């Protein structure tokens, strides 16, 4: 039996999350299968009852995929409740190049990425740059407050 991995992120506004995370990850919105106009139409055609679909669900892309086909699918699942506590799982966007790259270069790469992502709607939560450490990273929050790291 084949297994695939999907990352599901609960959210209040899948459209804004798709827009943000396509920018953050370099992914693309996942088109509906089978030439369907929308995911909603696809779900209805496969037998999902209308009453199981929240209003507006599937009218715009709610999932993103890696255009290279190597990363996991990410689905932004609408939920009515707001985020209330710290994530127990988060993403690390590793853009620095690792410890084989000089700290100044890693810091610039992280800073450039943080600037791009704050421009797309993220907010800086914490900078990780303890004196004497050969490390630089930034904890950000996406538009709905989910923490992730750029390092």
How would you describe what is shown here?
Helices cover 24% and strands 23% of the residues. It has 151 residues and is an alpha/beta fold. The strands form two sheets. It has a four-stranded mixed β-sheet, covered by helices on one side. Strand 3 (63-65) and strand 4 form a beta hairpin. The longest helix is centred in the C-terminal third of the chain and has 17 residues, at 103-119. The two termini are 35 Å apart. The mean pLDDT is 93.
Keywords, separated by commas or semicolons:
151 residues, alpha/beta, 8 strands, 23% strand, elongated
Poorly predicted ranges: none
What gyration radius follows from the Cα positions, in whole Å? 18 Å
How many E strands? 8
Calculate the terminal CA-CA distance, rounded to whole Å. 35 Å
Category by helix and strand content: alpha/beta
Widest sheet: strand ordering: 1-4-3-2
Brief summary:
The protein is an alpha/beta fold and 151 residues long. It contains three helices and eight strands.
What's the topology here?
Blueprint: E1 6-11, H1 14-25, E2 28-29, H2 39-45, E3 63-65, E4 73-78, E5 91-93, H3 103-119, E6 123-128, E7 137-141, E8 147-150
Parallel strand pairs: 1-4, 5-8
Antiparallel strand pairs: 2-3, 3-4, 6-7, 7-8
